[in-house]
């Protein structure tokens, strides 16, 4: 078989079988460690147990897409089970303030990155564990703007969302209060909001203050950002009091205090307090259907066992790579031809500089300051827009990004890194147009489970390139005004979006405006894969809003 | 450029300013045995890897350098990945074999000797060619030179700056975060944050 040949060629001298998946390694290790519970070799393999217990809903994935709806469904009295591929950990004991030691937070199964601008996965954007990618998100929670949802109307490019911002606003308000968002009131770029943020902004660190000062000189309005990290103690139903952020600056490698509103300290304990069951280390492989095409059960691997869970409804919330991968592997919801298509990633260009000031970039919320003056720049030669953010950074992340860009080695590398404490950065978060050249497919190369690795093609198109040029110029101006020396830019792309788009018709979309699959009567999808366009803001808050909205639409249909 | 006093991180690891999980991660690197036996690479290739790493991170200031090769060998033995790889690159194990072989080919092409036999200046010349994407050798027909150098440099850099001694060198003490950082504005240090040595 050709696939096996590829596999053999790929590994010239396997010391062990080509287990590149840490998750599977740990499963195998667990398996070996507990032989007593395994069937003896004499027994013939039993057919998969077919338990009669059927739950109302299975939710695959416990990140920003799965966790809020899990809580909503449990609170409605439904029997719900969440399947999470990664482990459940105790942040207070298990998390180290050490970037390398925290690599377990990331989805480290290998993905193949193709195209002219190959996207980095793993720690750049893909999480695992109970809480999903919110375990490592920076906790930026800006709302999308009205115009972000109607790019085609406004620019004749991209696509419109099938509904307007008013559909999301009530959920934004609810989530901001539930999570305890720290942010400015009124919000400078949306001053007419009905409700302000529940908590005051977090303190501005070195990078934020430098950006604030320079932007003031240049006439660019700034504000402390909205962050899902607590600036004061906050009471959370299902878990109790969450303590305030202590400015550890470690959001992207895991908060050990519960100050950051990751799903494991917010929606998931709420869901469990209403009877939801969360099964960790449960890697879904199959989605079973009956003759009519209804999903009837989900099959997953857990601790070396294959388990089947029957369900009346399935919510697929595995993120914009694993969601389409599961659909493709199970040949599910493929009629529109849109699964895997229109993969998008936010332009996230960073500009770094060295300052006289002693900054210590490991301190404080990494993204302290924001400007949305560039949401629709007057001098733009591109559609859409972007926001500007200050960035703090941890040393290993900074050093590895820096060498990828600057290729320093030898003494110049060590010399440059000695200036780490004098380093500060700014970056953008820009909209990305859906494009046919950017997509995900299953490759011929197999992972340790024997499943095809996903291959993602991404090339920044003319619009993204123009936006990058515009943004780099502004960011360099800001950093020059702030007094930076040795300024350099790093072109990068963050967040994984698209691949199972939402739309009005099954001819060109995978799910309808309620998040329900056109092809499958009891399948809902809710994560960043359903975004028709990328939005010019960090996606987590909008994913959570969609999650609650999807649950409400589902519950309304159930009761109808 | 700034210099910082030695011993800062090692002293902090002895205090309650560092959590047990953090201490365990950093002390494992600090106390790694000096006599690592490679599991993935054969002995010669492993020595070649060490020699190249010693030019990418020259450490004339240290009696015993921070060893960067063991973590590479260990990772390739375990077969762990970091979530992605360039589609244009072969799998990591093959990339390292081809890349290290290619460095020897480049050394032979320029100096008619293997990399290990070259002087430090000659070795730097070979690495400079690799960094510029101009190294000679047939292996580079199967391996994109720029991507290999980027990935290799990035992995060594991660291993180096994850080490407590490298963190002392750049004045990083973010691991000592148990009390938090109440002062985050520029030029406001906590007593446990080292001042630069003039």
Largest sheet of chain B: none
Proportion in helices of chain A:
25-40%
Using CB atoms under 8 Å apart, which protein chain pair has the greatest interface?
Answer: A-B, 85 and 67 residues
CA-to-CA gap between the ends of chain A? Answer: 51 Å
- Detail the poorly predicted runs of chain A: 1-24, 31-44
Number of domains of chain A: 1
What radius of gyration of chain A results from the CA coordinates? 23 Å
What's the count of strands of chain A? 20
Q: Which CATH architecture of chain A is right?
A: 3-Layer(bba) Sandwich
Compute the CA-based radius of gyration of chain B. Answer: 19 Å
Name the beta content range of chain B: under 5%
* CATH homologous superfamily annotation of chain A: FAD/NAD(P)-binding domain
Q: How many alpha or pi helices of chain B? A: 8
Instruction: Give the low-confidence spans of chain B.
Output: none
